Amino acid sequence: MLLILLGVLVMHLIILILLIVSTAASTWSVGGDRTTDLWYTCTNSNGGYHCKPAISEDWLQAVQALMILSLLFCFFSLIAFLFQLFKLVKGGRFFFTAIFQILASVFVMCAAIIYTVMSPDEGSVKFGYAYVLAWVSFPLTLISGLIYIVLRKKE
């Protein structure tokens, strides 16, 4: 049982790191000498790296908000898991943790879908690794939430 709990905790920490990197990294889309993330658009010109704030369209602000919400809910579910690990009665399930983790997965899925649909469709622009990390963290977060539903505390 200890190995299962340790495995779930490690998986949760990996998901949290993926969400942090995905939200903060500067490569949601890459094209030529330009990279775009949720916060800045950076160009590499004349040997320098110049960044300016990203466009302030509603869809990008929605993606920013959803990614931050997914980070917060994933972090709060980690805190809830640790709390429930010591305070939950024997045989109890980690429902509170599961709800927060599943909500985090829904938020990251919605953010990635909005970015996919609304990002400018330019021929030379491709999705970057931060975008891929967001999509990778979605099923992992959902699976983690489902594991928390099934998981029971034993002594």
UniProtKB/TrEMBL annotation:
- Residue ranges of the TM segments: 62-83, 95-117, 129-151
Q: Which domain of life is it from?
A: Eukaryota
Q: What is the membrane topology listed in the Swiss-Prot or TrEMBL record?
A: Multi-pass membrane protein
Q: Which GO terms describe its cellular component?
A: membrane
Q: Signal sequence span per UniProt?
A: 1-25
Q: Which Pfam families match?
A: PMP22_Claudin
Compartment list: Membrane
Keywords annotated in UniProt: Membrane, Signal, Transmembrane, Transmembrane helix
The family annotation for this protein states:
Belongs to the PMP-22/EMP/MP20 family.
Q: What is this protein called?
A: Peripheral myelin protein 22
Q: List the top taxonomic levels of the source.
A: Eukaryota, Metazoa, Chordata, Craniata, Vertebrata
